[in-house]
Amino acid sequence: GAVVSQHPSRVICKSGTSVKIECRSLDFQATTMFWYRQFPKKSLMLMATSNEGSKATYEQGVEKDKFLINHASLTLSTLTVTSAHPEDSSFYICSARDPDSRTDTQYFGPGTRLTVL
Amino acid sequence: AQTVTQSQPEMSVQEAETVTLSCTYDTSENNYYLFWYKQPPSRQMILVIRQEAYKQQNATENRFSVNFQKAAKSFSLKISDSQLGDTAMYFCAFMKLLKLTFGTGTRLTIIP
Questions:
Q1: pLDDT tens, B44-64?
Q2: Which of A66, A74, A82 is nearest to A100 (CA)?
Q3: Are A107 and A95 in contact (CB under 8 A)?
Q4: 3-state SS, residue B102
Q5: Is A41 left (phi over 0), alpha (psi -120 to 50) or beta?
Q6: Beta partners for residue A46, in sequence order
Q7: Are the C-beta atoms of residues A7 and A78 closer than 8 Å to each other?
Q8: A43: CB partners within 8 A, 6+ apart
Q9: Which residues of A touch B46 (CB under 8 A)?
Q10: Which residues of A touch B95 (CB under 8 A)?
């Protein structure tokens, strides 16, 4: 149980285009999902918290107009990187909280490597 | 704000030996969760073990155990009988109100 998927696993796009990344909880309903960014050989940095049916909460320094988050259902959150630039190239990871678990453990997706040319 | 410190950027150990990874954190909170996550070369984050701060008993999961010292704000991970599949990046994480703060990680290599 507690499986989270992400799609695509890799994406290469041209500068100025937008890219959408999907995060799905496969065997549980996730009212809350999270988006992280990981630079090479670095730790994970929380970008935003995605709540089903409401606006995402962004961490300080994260541009909400650049990183659009939509959590339209209890099993799907999407992150759209708008007008991508090379500095947006990174590894993006989502996680989901299983509200039925007795703890607040987050289960992670396999990540998406974004390369902006 | 919470901070998590992992002072060992890299470690290596012979297969079948025991290794301990260090983690300290800074918080003014009393109730929180602590986690160790493993990130192998596939980059998939895998939960290794979790500890509730209100529990005095140290958590164990098969070959993995923690030494949780709340007063010292220390949360080390012990891996017994290490296996080649344990080779990975290990992240210590603090959680309060669903927000995870990660340490910088320790790259662990198990030597055959």
A1: 999 999 999 999 899 999 999
A2: A74
A3: yes
A4: strand
A5: left
A6: A36
A7: no
A8: B91, B102, B103, B104, B105
A9: 108
A10: 104, 106
